[in-house]
Model the fold of this input.
Amino acid sequence: MIENQRVTAKIAAGIGNSDVFDVILIGGGIMGCCTAYELSRRGLSVAIVEKGTVGEGPTGKSSAIIRQHYSNELTARMAYYSLGIFQNFEEIIGGECGFTKTGFLVLVDAKDKKGLESNIALHKKVGIESELIAAETVSELIPGMKTSDLVSAAYEPESGYADPYLTVTSFAQAARRLGTKIIQDTRVIGINFEGGKVTGVRTQNGELSAPVVINCSGAWGAQVAAMAGIEAPIDSCRVQVAFFRRPQGYEPPHPVVADFINGTYFRSETGGLTLVGLIDPAEADAIVNPDDYQEYMDDGFLLDAGERLVGRYPVMTHSESTGGYASLYAVTPDWHPVIDEVPAGSGFFICSGFSGHGFKLGPAVGIMTADLATGVRTPQFDPSLFRFGRFADNKLVTGGYEYSIVG
Ligand SMILES: Cc1cc2nc3c(=O)[nH]c(=O)nc-3n(C[C@H](O)[C@H](O)[C@H](O)COP(=O)(O)OP(=O)(O)OC[C@H]3O[C@@H](n4cnc5c(N)ncnc54)[C@H](O)[C@@H]3O)c2cc1C
Done:
């Protein structure tokens, strides 16, 4: 009877008795799906093992802002490349990603003026369309915004936001069309090694074999790394977003705003709504168990986010809230990911720890992780900046701003 139940569970999960792959990816978020797509495109046999369903984790709840504003060259290049994929998604990947071009504004005070200016110079070098603009131009882009406290502002006309769930499921479908096997409702519970080399994974529904296993489990990144005996500094941190309805006369979508002065970001959402989240380093302190945390929004957060929004966009004073939710960032000590083989030569890779800025980078990350796993080099996407050993060496990735979510 027990044996029969096991067989039924295996069939439901799509696991056969002799499933052998070139690569197994743990996690069906944006990183797992983009990497599976790239590996399958290169002719490898790939499986994604997801404990729930594709995109049901933080990826599906991402604010999915697609901006290119970064303060180091590699991430700016990754964002620039990935924007091109979002802009031409149907043609390149197939299916929809819901990219909405609204433009992206960064607002800073004196503290971040220098950082902003040097970033714009960097962006121009990379090829990103990005410029410093005057406060009057900000008011023209978003009528009703308070600009009296701005010291400097930048604008990216090509940026916007996507639909995260549509994007990740379209990548999953594209990978599946190329042969990727997607095994859902199946939790990886162990990783098998022989002589220091990975040989596959143990799941609640059976075992799968592969000489390469990639940990794309986001906020569960440390939990999965521990299965391979690795202590990874990836914290699972609870973050929240809230929605407010824009008043009559302000219904059309507005540009995405990163307001460093009020510590918020906000963007349009369908239905005349504005989505608000925080730009606050304290978010890294809200460490939770990723399998047991409050997924609904706190009242205190709603008040705080609402006040900060009104401080910048006074037309929202009388707007009603339509709720919000909580999800997870996978935060490393420098808010940048690990994309590395750990330990070298083991066949076990980590692609996790993207904190609050990974969604937009997914297409480039897929290439970088696939490159690493197959021993290919794409010079413009050298992943060595994201090596695991930087934490032990105390050589963290540094950015131009105090708050590293911006990268
Ligand atoms: C509220 C919020 C707003 C954000 N806003 C933005 C933004 O505007 N722009 C941006 O670029 N980024 C943003 N981000 C960040 C971005 O969404 C993340 O960096 C990105 O989605 C992480 O993707 P991932 O694939 O690494 O992880 P995840 O989406 O967490 O996927 C990991 C998957 O692994 C699965 N898993 C875990 N453990 C196991 C196991 N043992 N076995 C099998 N499966 C397992 C999980 O179920 C999950 O589906 C935001 C994030 C949040 C939470």
Q: What stands out?
A: The chain is about 30% helix and 25% strand. Residues 1-12 have pLDDT under 50 and may be disordered.
